[in-house]
Design a protein that fits this description.
Order of helices and strands: HHHHHHEEHHHHHHHHHHHHHEHEEHEHH
Structural class: mainly alpha
Radius of gyration: 26 Å
Shape: globular
Helix content: 55-70%
């Protein structure tokens, strides 16, 4: 098994490069910003439809009001996705351009929305005038929205890079000059898609969004089969196992299917039918990755309750609450599970078996697939029960999943626990004989004081506070670290303020920060983040697995670590200048 893992590690650079691809990042980042809309609209579906299960139906006007909010949010999701994906890609492309020649994000977003309407919406006329159908403005148009979001920023980039813009005299105010500079790329973008739409409809008889759905329908079906499910969720676990945040690679490829399937399931359920689509965000959050990627809920509680190893028991107890809410980095890096040959088989096998069992319940026991989108931090068993419509089958499935994951993980847990117990006994023996025990995980190279006078305010932008941004994949562990720093700063009256962000939602916060701390799962994105940080004059600090988890548990060590890194970087910069 060690040999297999070593061979897998050799492929890590390729997958890191794939994860850092700016187009995958654009889809992922664009959707992170849209998640409040998705969750918000789903709440109204829950309020509207869930009472029906127990025979209660809202008056027509109330139900119409609830559905109106849903339709005016999820119903235009693709229109907003086109703009948001374009915005995210523009951010990456701007890092390649001089600061005095940046692509205007707002203009790109407007052009992308117009381009999407051209290729995805069918116009019609009636007695009242010209209208357009909204069928592909919702989840069905997402793939077309992605394509538009990729092309429009590149047209702008070509124009700005090659100075194909209208240049006004120096006497013209900057805001007016910038508006004129947008005219040519805006015109080229919208004209390109306008002409494309004319010829495409002549050739196919339909719009681009509808055509994509027709062509990819077999792929959607195949992805919902046992082999397709194994590939999707096995790949997520595999990438995480080798140290790369798995969903960052897989999710952009299946996001459109996720949202389309949930909306289809919901409509079938409301019509009294059986919702059978499997691939959904809920399937990922609450079935395949029950407790986080690798289905780590069960193994975490095994460590906490059954481990003989003091280290594993401590790791399990510290990680239990975060993992219950889907934040599993403490167990991934604390045990560790990733790149640990002992857990290679269960870490990849458990998610696949979980989703297969889920499909069996849907196909053969009458349970619905996911009909509601819920926040990823909902505890897995609760999210599963709610997401499929509060069915009795879901309760049975929850128990079956927990039992199955226990059976899958137990032999490997037992082997690893015995291994760690032996290691601890050896260290205790060495300590008793006068040897040094180097088992402590010290997060810092040099521990410095954390009194107010030790905070290097001279290195900060506002000279008042040390502003820290912690970035992780989903905003979970970054929130734990930021909250710990803020709590300590308040207790000790330190001039420190910390914020947390999921990768993709960090861009608006970054320019106002003095330093950003990257969680270890950001390793694949550190090059692009370094570009962003340098662009905003922000110092960037990277972390390793156990080190980062130690920082989240000890705010004093975390602050000392950050201050020490800042001072060392400053001394290095001064030395380079000399």
């Amino acid at each position: 098994m060690n040999t297999i893992v070593k061979q897998i590690e050799k492929a890590q650079p390729f997958f890191k490069k794939l994860s850092a691809n700016i187009y995958l990042q654009a889809v992922r980042d664009g959707f992170i910003s849209l998640m409040p809309i998705i969750i918000f609209s789903s709440l109204f579906i829950l309020v509207s439809a869930v009472p029906n299960i127990w025979g209660f139906y809202w008056p027509t006007n109330v139900n119409d009001g609830l559905m109106k909010i849903y339709n005016y949010s999820m119903g235009v999701l693709s229109l907003m996705a086109a703009a948001n994906v374009a915005r995210a890609l523009t951010k990456s492309l701007n890092l390649r351009l001089p600061k005095i020649n940046q692509i205007p994000t707002a203009s790109v977003m407007f052009a992308s929305q117009i381009a999407f309407l051209l290729v995805a919406v069918d116009p019609f006329t009636n007695k009242l005038g010209l209208y357009f159908t909204e069928g592909y403005m919702g989840t069905k148009g997402l793939l077309a929205a992605f394509l538009v979001g990729f092309v429009v920023p590149n047209i702008y980039y070509f124009c700005f890079k090659n100075h194909i813009t209208i240049k006004m005299p120096d006497q013209v105010p900057q805001n007016i000059s910038s508006a004129f500079a947008n005219i040519i790329p805006f015109a080229l973008s919208t004209s390109f898609f306008g002409l494309f739409d004319v010829f495409f409809r002549m050739a196919t008889g339909t719009n681009l969004a509808a055509w994509i759905i027709q062509v990819l329908a077999p792929l959607f079906t195949a992805a919902d089969g046992y082999v397709g499910l194994a590939i999707v969720y096995g790949a997520m676990a595999f990438f995480w196992f080798i140290g790369i945040q798995g969903p960052s690679i897989v999710e952009p490829a299946v996001t459109a299917i996720y949202l389309t399937n949930v909306e289809t399931n919901m409509k079938v359920f409301q019509a009294g039918g059986h919702a059978t689509n499997i691939l959904a965000q809920g399937t990922q959050y609450f079935v395949a990755t029950l407790g986080g990627t690798g289905a780590t809920l069960v193994i975490t509680y095994m460590f906490a309750l059954w481990a003989k190893s003091k280290e594993l028991k401590a790791v399990g107890r510290a990680a239990a609450i975060p993992v219950t809410f889907g934040v599993n980095e403490p167990i991934l890096f604390g045990a560790p599970l990733i790149l640990n040959p002992v857990f290679f088989i269960p870490f990849i096998g458990a998610p696949i078996l979980n989703v297969w069992l889920f499909k069996i319940f849907v196909d053969h026991f009458g349970m619905n697939g996911f009909i509601y989108n819920l926040p990823w931090t909902t505890p897995g068993p609760i999210g599963l029960y709610m997401g499929v419509g509060f069915s009795i089958q879901a309760l049975i499935l929850v128990v079956a999943l927990l039992v199955m994951d226990t059976v899958v993980y137990y032999p490997f847990f037992k082997a690893y626990d015995l291994q760690k117990v032996a290691e601890e006994a050896e260290k205790d023996k060495a300590a008793a004989e006068g040897g040094s025990d180097d088992s402590s995980n010290v997060a810092t190279d040099t521990v410095v004081a954390t009194a107010a006078g030790d905070i290097p305010l001279g290195l900060t932008k506002d000279k008042k506070n040390l502003n820290i941004l912690v970035i992780c994949a989903g905003g979970g562990t970054s929130g734990i670290l930021a909250n710990a720093l803020n709590k300590m700063a308040k207790e000790k009256d330190l001039p420190v303020e910390a914020a947390a962000a999921a990768y993709g939602a960090h861009s608006d916060l970054l320019p106002d920060m003095d330093v950003t701390v990257l969680a270890p799962q950001m390793d694949a994105m550190k090059d692009s983040l370094k570009q962003e940080a340098d662009h905003s004059d922000v110092k960037m600090i990277t972390t390793t697995g156990k080190q980062y988890i130690d920082l989240t548990r000890h705010a004093d060590k975390a602050l000392s670590f950050i201050v020490d890194k800042l001072q060392k970087d400053e001394n290095k910069d001064e030395g380079d200048k000399k």
